[in-house]
Amino acid sequence: MVDWKRVADSVIEIPIVTSFTRVGYDVRSRLGHWRPVDRHNLAGRTMVVTGATSGLGFSMAETLARCGASVVLWGRSAGRTTDARDAIARSTGNATLDVVVADMSEPDEIRRGAAELLARHERVDALVHNAGALAPTRMLNSEGHESTVAAQVLGPFLLTSLLLDRMRSSAPSRVITMSSGGMYASPLRVEDLEMGEDYRGAEQYARAKRAQVTLNELWAQHHPGQGVHFHAVHPGWADTPGVQESLPAFRRAMRPLLRTVEQGADTALWLAADDGAPLESNGGFWHDRERRPIHRLGFTKRSDTPERRQALWDWCTSQISV
Fold it and tell me: Which tens digits make up the pLDDT trace of 269-321?
């Protein structure tokens, strides 16, 4: 018997415009009869969302709170993070919300934030790595690392390491990394992962997102059978504040087809909340509630060697101290 849902998904997936825009979301969600995430009961679970003050992060935190979860909003601005918590408390009636103020590009702040979180919460059922923006100009953190790599590669690597024991004791738990379809255009880089004077924001962002997806697979390989499930997500092209600020020309051209923030957040939320498919696999790259290949182009696949993967893991390990 022909699986017409699978056929339709494959047809949509081939051209990027249909797959990444709201067209793909609308067709797939209807054909798949997706259960809305906000129908899950997450009472008793603790969910951590970084970059929770706006866009996808705020939407995810709000939906998780609406499902009854205890949500930890992690942000770098005390005022904005507290405002986000208060807004979510008003909209959902959920008072079990917490705030951690720490910059994901600064290791010392991450260590402090993790210590605060662990002291206040006995469980960590899901950690959603969402923090990170496309920086138009090159900036360095206090340790001399390029800021995009610091916030989106090294920062999540450190925070995952610090929370891993608590997540094991909370099993089954999940680590979810919000990546981007931009990584499809970037090969896996290690020695030149951090761009120098030739800095181009969009390319640096894509390099970091490629590293995220590779590390997601490596986390699953290094920690199998421990009850912690690692997933990476491509949200599609969503009309977020980040897109509005960093890619204004792209937004003007694509605005009628861009996904809503809620549509962009859907698959990450489903991976955090659902006890079916997300707990039956590990290390996958997801888009619209289906696992997807991590390569679309031959040259990026050729760059993805076991030696380079090991070098990336070793480099990240060498840059943090837990």
Answer: 999 999 999 999 999 999 999 999 999 999 999 999 999 999 999 999 999 98
Per the structure, the count of domains in the chain is 2
Does 6 lie in the same domain as 84? no
204 and 97 co-located in one domain: yes
Count of residues for the chain?
322
Q: Which residues are catalytic?
A: 205
Residue (of 190, 263, 250, 312) closest to 25 by Cα position: 263
Neighbours of 276 (CB within 10 A): 8
**258 phi, psi to nearest 5 deg:** -65, 145
DSSP annotation of 255:
G
**pTM of the model as a whole:** 0.94
Q: Domain of residue 295: give its range.
A: 34-319
Instruction: Indicate if the alpha-carbon torsion angle 122, 126, 129, 131 is positive or negative.
Output: negative
User: 257 in the Ramachandran plot: left (φ > 0), alpha (ψ -120 to 50) or beta?
Assistant: alpha
